[in-house]
Design a protein that fits this description.
two-stranded antiparallel sheet; alpha+beta; 87 residues
């Protein structure tokens, strides 16, 4: 698993609001989420690259993340002519 920086990711999961659909685990490119006991939980929160796929695909809005601030933003900016990739 990739780890960017410990305990700095903006990812937040409201376990009480989670309905256990599993979409977050399906769409996450870094396997940040696991479904246990019909609820999502973190497998490795620090592996999050803040792409926002989980939040966009959560049908109940149980996931919040500030996109464009993490590693995904750095890589995309580097690919498309911005500053070089940060990770």
């Amino acid at each position: 698993m990739l780890t960017y920086l410990k305990n700095v990711v903006t990812l937040e999961l409201d376990v009480e609001a989670c309905v256990g659909c599993g979409m977050c685990a399906v769409v996450c490119p870094h396997a940040v989420f696991a479904i246990e006991n019909k609820k999502a939980g973190y497998r490795d929160r620090d592996a999050c690259m803040e792409c926002g796929a989980c939040a966009r695909n959560c049908p109940v809005g149980a996931i919040r993340v500030t996109t464009g601030v993490g590693c995904a933003s750095g890589i995309l900016n580097g690919l498309f002519g911005g500053d070089g990739a940060c990770c």
